Amino acid sequence: MPHASTGADPRARLRIGPVELRNRIVFPAHLTNFSVDGTVTDRHITYYEARARGGAALIVTEEHTVHPSDRPYEKLIRGWDPGVLGGYRRLTAAVHRHGTRIVAQLNHNGAQGSSVYTELPLWAPSPEPDPLFREVPRQIAPAEIADLVAAYAAVARRCVDGGFDGVEIQCSQASILRAFLAAGTNHRTDEYGGDSRSRARLLLEVVTAVRGAVGRDAVVGVRLTGHDGTAGGVCTEDAVQVAGMLEASGDVDYLNTSVGVATETLHLVEAPMSTPHGYSLFVPDAIRAAVSLPVIGVGRFTRPDQVRAALARGVCDLVGAVRAQIADPHFASKTLSGRDDEIRPCIGCNQECIGRVGLGRGIGCAVNPRAGHESHLPPSLPPRRVVVAGAGPAGLRAAATAAAQGHSVVVLERNRRTGGQIREAAIAPHRGELLGAVTHLDAECRRRGVDIRTGIDVDAGTIRSLRPDVVVVATGARPRRPAWAGSSARVADVRDVLTGRAVPSGRVLVVDDLGFHQGTSVAELLADRGCAVTVCTPGMIVGQDLGLTLDADGWLRRAHDKRIEQITDVVVTGIVDHTDGADVTLVHHPTGDRRALRVDTVVVATHQEPVDELWRELAGCGVRVIRVGDAVTPRRLDAAILDGDRAGTELGGTGDQGAEPEAWRSRRMATRGHSSSPRSRSAARTSASSGESDSSGTIRKPRRS
């Protein structure tokens, strides 16, 4: 029967099956790429333990594959291998020390994988290839189904023997069980195909077998997709029916939820910044209304008020927050104790979490440079007087880290406000949450006693007057005018547009040389202001790096709606000004064909150059000088914050100015990963075009997911 209660406090305890959870905040399953040779590693242990120490009530580990036929990516935990048992016991003991419960997610990816590692055909309910992996799977035979069911049970038993409080069966974004549920991927005519109950047969058999293997003293949960977003996929009505079947089985203790699939609609699974918070809560709301089992809701929870609101409204019993707890491992404890302002916010950029994992690297975080490196301890140094020149993300991170180590820190900033280029970038549509990265750093600095002085033009004399022991130069970068622009008055930089120094109108060409948000977000801004916008790029697609952060789908939909034209595979070679506009010469570099485009303004998103005059002026000044962020060379937010954190921990180092600190170099080399299959999930999305091009490269019809 459905729930009778209408809401709960995040601090309220909750029983799921045989265990009691100390609060309502969950750290759900997500890939880390920390596994080596299929085992649990020390990085897993310190990573999960940090979130247990930070107050999470329940941790669901990343997937453990249950069968040797399944290896979609390189760094997968092989639950079927008895050799994992020792790692299991070390991991669970570390998490249990902090009063947190931990379950292992069990899975078989089916056709959402690759045969590159196993060199065996993929298994699936029917021979339907995944749209991104594009391998035709083999229909799994009845004897193999029995083998698979037994494998789930055996791995579940091993997990419990390894100290886990139970297991979660994945039937969501990347699962052969979900493929059996979906009519679009299950065309079987035997007892495992047909109507919804028959398509759910395998899931129910797995649940029964797992419960039989672990007994009633262990937790058994199911993560259930509630909206695939694909043709023939699982819809919310299907999920509600299956949830009722699972509850009726008597073998399930809780239901977790998700939306999307991990290939075709991955942008729904791990939604980027442009996606509204709570976007997927309609799924747990519908399921909770139909069953009495505890239900976990997910939906880009990044702030405590969102957690409290979801629980108060009764749309779920528990809240799953992954990226919020990657960004701040103490998100749960700070939420529960009302320390909302101290939380380091996830900004939804997906650069170092989803983006790194998609390239086969260990998970990280743009705003938390310690994510995935929790065992790294900064050196102990005597107190020093530190002056930081520049209050962008690199300078603020350096200041906050140094202050946390007990140093006396002064920050000098030329502008009236801190934040640097991030404050400018946050002006663009769908990029406002970027601001949280620097406003939090500003607040952290002030809490730690950093003296922040704005509106100051800094030179070597200013620095010397403060008598520092160490100087951190974080003076950022400035636009570099492209050579083809000459003296044209009709060429402006994206930063000029964002700050209002340039106000284009009419026909605008945006030149996307960077392949990221700089060009696409300004194109949207100008289209919203009524400009007729065209974006050109030398790349195969506009904003080509948006695929890794899962922003490409949203950009293409919005660009289509705003009538933004896109021209690919072209370079700009010249511009000629006229009284009524300018002719811009575009060369299609694969063929050499030339064309002229008449516009009113050209806005360039192109490479910058370091503002390093102060660093050069300080050479030989007798104190240690460290360059960080764009003052070294222009890069992205994650690099700036990592640079700042390195500088703040290595103030006592020696060597070349701007050099990478030795301790961080050792850390980087020790954790260097190997690239996964080129068909890794996010990377596959990057290479898959979301639009159809004619021979000139103009995208005519972006496809909607």
What order do the helices and strands come in, and which of them pair?
Blueprint: E1 14-16, E2 19-21, E3 25-27, H1 42-53, E4 58-65, E5 77-78, H2 85-96, E6 101-107, E7 123-124, E8 138-139, H3 142-161, E9 166-171, H4 176-181, H5 196-199, H6 201-214, E10 219-225, H7 236-249, E11 254-258, H8 266-269, H9 282-288, E12 296-297, H10 304-313, E13 318-320, H11 323-327, H12 331-336, H13 354-358, E14 385-389, H14 393-404, E15 408-413, H15 420-425, H16 435-447, E16 451-454, H17 460-465, E17 470-473, E18 477-479, E19 491-493, H18 494-499, E20 507-512, H19 517-528, E21 532-536, H20 552-561, E22 565-567, E23 570-578, E24 581-588, E25 593-599, E26 601-605, E27 608-610, H21 613-617, E28 624-627, H22 637-649, H23 662-670, H24 681-687
Parallel strand pairs: 3-4, 3-13, 4-5, 4-6, 6-9, 7-8, 9-10, 10-11, 12-13, 14-15, 14-17, 15-16, 17-28, 19-26, 20-21, 20-26, 21-22
Antiparallel strand pairs: 1-2, 18-27, 23-24, 24-25
